[in-house]
Amino acid sequence: MQPKLLLRIAAAIMLLHTIGHTFGALTWEDAPNARVADIITGMRREHFIFMGRSASLADFYNGYGISMIFVLLLVSMQLWILSTNPIKITLIAIGFFLLALAVCEYIYFFPMAALFSLLASICVWLTWLKPSKGIA
Predict the structure, then answer these.
(1) Helix (H) or strand (E) holding 47
(2) Residues 58-108: pLDDT tens digits?
(3) Residue 16: pLDDT band by 50, 70, 90 thresholds?
(4) What is the reported pTM?
(5) By three-state DSSP, how is residue 41 classified?
(6) Would you give the DSSP letter of residue 49?
(7) How far is CA 80 from CA 14, 31, 35, in A?
């Protein structure tokens, strides 16, 4: 398989990951039951001063979720752009990043998110391993 195609597959996988994460990040407050609703209410209700502003755990949770949308989108775009001119050192960096992301997602979130990052990482590593005159 051509490096360009592998990296574009990785970009598409990460774009799907971004879309899934966006739905999750924007709907996390939709509680599936009363106990979870109580926890979410507590996360919104309890405020504390952090770095000069009043914040709640819900604020942080929202902020991290929205920030991650931008990170995943950036990775998708970076993979697409890189597909036109693969650079070995960049492939290594993105490959490690995606692998670390997959491990983190598996440990702290859920297997489906980890699978998306792992599959994208495999595409990147296959591109890196592929001997090609088109890779700098």
Answers:
(1) strand 47-50
(2) 999 999 999 999 999 999 999 999 999 888 899 999 999 999 999 999 999
(3) very high
(4) 0.87
(5) helix
(6) E
(7) 10, 36, 42
The 3-state DSSP class for residue 2 equals coil
As beta bridge partners, residue 55 has 48
User: Is 116 within 8 Å of 14 (Cβ atoms)?
Assistant: yes
Q: Where are the alpha helices (DSSP H) in the chain?
A: 3-27, 34-45, 57-82, 88-108, 111-129
**Sign of torsion over alpha carbons 7, 8, 10, 11:** positive
Report how far residue 23's alpha carbon sits from residue 17's, in angstroms, rounded to the nearest whole number: 10
CA distance 69 to 21: 7
The tokens for 74 are 């950036």
Token couple for 111: 């297997």
